[in-house]
Amino acid sequence: MAQRYYTLAEGCPYASNSTSVQLRSGNAGLLLMQDTQLIETLAHFARERIPERVVHAKAAGAYGEFTCTHDCTDITSASFLSEIGKTTPLLLRISTVGPEAGSADTLRDVHGWAMKLYTDEGNLDWVFNNTPVFFIRDPLKFPSLNRSHKRNPQSHLPDPNMFWDFHAGNPEGFHQLLHLFSDRGTPASLRHMNAYSGHTYKFTLKDGSFNYVKFHIKTTQGIKNFTKEESVRVAGENPDFLIQDMFEVIERKDYPEWKVYVQVMTPEQAETYRWNIFDMTKVWPHSDFPLRQIGTMKLNRNPRNYFTDIEQAAFSPSNMVPGIAPSADPVLQARMFSYPDAARYRLGTNYQQLPTNAAKAPVYCPYQRDGQMNFSDNYGADPNYVGSSLQPITYYQDLTGQPPQTVSTLTEHEKWVGQVSNFQYGLYEDDFEQAAGLWKVIGKEPGHQERFFGNVAVHLSQVKSSALRKRVYGLFGRVDWGLGEGVRKATEGLVNDAHKT
Ligand code: NDP
Q1: What is the rounded distance in angstroms from the CA atom of residue 32 to the CA atom of residue 22?
Q2: Which residues of 96-121 are buried (b: 16+ CB within 10 A; e: fewer)?
Q3: 0.90 surpassed by pTM
Q4: 371 in the Ramachandran plot: left (φ > 0), alpha (ψ -120 to 50) or beta?
Q5: Is 196 annotated as a binding residue?
Q6: What is the DSSP string of 153-214?
């Protein structure tokens, strides 16, 4: 019989949906411990927040699909790229990075692009950004970088002094700073921006061979950005503007679309290439490695519930399918540990079982069992240790009608010769060369360089130390003399104005 009443979480009906049980005497009353409904309601409320992501806390998210549009079988054996027209469901979560979940989403920041492709060979996560490069190439710096973009440990205020102090001390990130303070640092909607893997990955074939690849996801809607004035105004008027825009376009079936490309480099080309392909402060210039389209993607379904579908979503660069493999980029290698580690802390040991994270391909992982909040049937009576000959494996067979097989997804790896020693990244002379290339690209758009000066100046002028400001002008000047000068003039103009008032 269909249930027609509200219940406790245990399924039992309760007396009233809206009042507590009280021992009444006239209008007054005493609460009783027997009011399970009240106690459960209050206790659950106190526990309904889970830890906020330490970075990428604020986000929009939606479901959609990826379609393979071009023959890729010469470069990868990945099943989702095996046939033109093959579609794969996906989940995309687009976030800001530094500020908290309640912050305004149009303010200047890098935007994260976390995408889960539910392929027929398991989940593939692309955890990208809307910029093709990153601030650092040594993963040890990651917490420092992010703290410097967050709040001052004493004042609890965002602190431009910390921000510029970090970047002046770690100037390999100036290429990324050019992206951040360009017009693209304030996208006018999440539909109007691109995403990039940044990292080098590998596409692999069944014969063990591989190529290096970088992914590019380009908006079909075209790039559209806010000016700094617009982004600040919208932040005040509607701090959730980007989330709302994404939700509403999908509700009205105006589905946003992107084209997906790769740049492909052979291992031989990598050996002699002038840029270190494992350094994520660098791009592969398009003129050297042109884009090759592999697919399209679109978003076409809003979450049914934000918490279950988006907040509980966990993405990791370590989620890869056969045909795709990691490269030796140290930041990628570190993220492959760090993201699942964060998910275990935030969501618990069995976060992969949550519906939004669960693979749509059959899962048979009997050596990962038990743990808090395990709501699977835990592989029944199947052996929980390797090498067993005692018991027939039944669970997987029940699921698929097939006995489980072992498939090796290992492919040829890069060959390394060397010795283990302490190594510290320094600053290299060519760290400013690609930034200079971007400065020229920016210069092609009328007024963009002037806007860039203004975008930096409003932030940098808040730095109290004139010596630090000077260091920053010098570093921008190493990219391009005119850039350093332009930033200096615009910034010192605002500093002087502030002193006058
Ligand atoms: P190209 O002139 O061949 O490519 C420039 C690329 O820069 C464009 O294809 C476009 O990428 C992107 N771009 C255009 N306008 C802007 C802008 N206002 N802000 C940020 N990016 C913009 O030169 P290179 O390939 O030699 O790259 C020069 C610089 O361009 C790089 O140092 C890098 O910072 C930037 N860039 C390069 C990319 C690459 O993978 N080579 C990708 C993105 C940026 P898109 O079509 O993806 O929008």
Answers
A1: 6
A2: bbbbeeebbbbbbbbbbbbbbbbbeb
A3: yes
A4: left
A5: no
A6: TTT-SB-HHHHHHHHHHSGGGHHHHHHHTSGGGSBS-GGG--EE--S-EEEE-TTS-EEEEE
Domain boundaries, the chain: 59-141+186-353, 432-500
pLDDT value of position 440 = 98
Tens-digit pLDDT profile for residues 27-73: 667 778 888 888 999 999 999 999 999 999 999 999 999 999 999 99
Asked if residue 335 lies in contact with residue 138, where contact means CB atoms within 8 angstroms, the answer is no
Say if CB 224 and CB 187 are below 8 A apart.
yes
Distance CA 119, CA 321 (A): 8
- Cα atoms in the Cβ-side hemisphere of radius 13 Å centred on 240: 10
Q: Is the CATH number of domain 59-141+186-353 2.40.40.10?
A: no
* Residue 434 in contact with ligand 1 by CB distance below 6 A: yes
Sign of CA dihedral 218, 219, 223, 228: negative
Nearest protein CA to atom 3 of ligand 1, as residue? 286
Q: When comparing pLDDT for 455 and 388, which is higher?
A: 455
Please tell me the distance between residue 282's alpha carbon and the centre of ligand 1 in angstroms.
11
Please state, in angstroms and rounded to a whole number, the distance separating the CA atoms of residues 447 and 183: 10
pLDDT at residue 93, rounded to an integer: 98
CB 432 within 8 A of CB 440: no
Burial group, residue 149, by CB count within 10 angstroms (0-12, 13-18, 19+): buried
Set 111, 123, 129, 149: catalytic member: 129
Q: Is 225 designated active site? A: no
Active site residue 286: no
